[in-house]
Amino acid sequence: MAPNLKVRQSHFYTNASYFAIRPLFPRYVFARFGANLISKVRYTRGVHSIVDFGDGPVMVADEVIESIRSRILADGFVKLGEEFKSGDKVFIKSGPLKNLEGVFDKDLKASKRVMILLTSVNYDGRLIVERDVVQKAICTPKGSALSH
């Protein structure tokens, strides 16, 4: 298994947005084989080495492989991070605005930023933040938001 991702990038000169295909784990392939095949695998064309820590090949737990497989979408690419829909309750998980709550508005094209409407202050304004610092919130019975 050699999982791939679609990564949003911007063209250097035009700043036009496009998706590039990149490996989730560059230069690594997950393979299951018996100990009797180690030398054949090691000397297969294109194989640089087998990952080991001195005691032999490293076994990757089936749960890890299944976790990766469960994130592969119908288009064959791995989905990383959360998908946000307009209206999702979110909170900012790091940075100077940490713990502020809001509502997801939209992704900004050709950018790794999103726009949210702040709801946790006495000011209803839109805010542009890095996508990586926003997380979906779970509403509790009293209406406050918690992370999941």
CA radius of gyration is 21 Å
Strand portion:
25-35%
Helix content: under 10%
- Please provide the ordered H/E string of secondary-structure elements: EEHHEEEEEE
Low-confidence runs of at least 5 consecutive residues: 141-148
Care to describe what's here?
This protein has helices at 38-42, 62-70, and strands at residues 4-10, 17-23, 89-92, 101-107, 113-118, 126-130, 134-139, 145-147. With 148 residues, it is mainly beta. It has two domains: 4-70, no CATH class; 89-147, SH3 type barrels, CATH 2.30.30.30. The strands form two sheets. A six-stranded antiparallel beta sheet has the order 6-5-4-3-7-8, with no helix packed on it. A two-stranded antiparallel ribbon has the order 1-2. The radius of gyration is 21 Å and the shape is elongated. It starts with a strand and ends with a strand. Residues 141-148 have low confidence and may be disordered.
Question: Main attributes?
Answer:
148 residues; SH3 type barrels; six-stranded antiparallel β-sheet; elongated
Please render the helix and strand layout as text.
Blueprint (H helix, E strand, L loop, with lengths): L3 E7 L6 E7 L14 H5 L19 H9 L18 E4 L8 E7 L5 E6 L7 E5 L3 E6 L5 E3 L1
Antiparallel strand pairs: 1-2, 3-4, 3-7, 4-5, 5-6, 7-8
Short description:
The protein folds into two domains: 4-70, no CATH class; 89-147, SH3 type barrels (Roll), CATH 2.30.30.
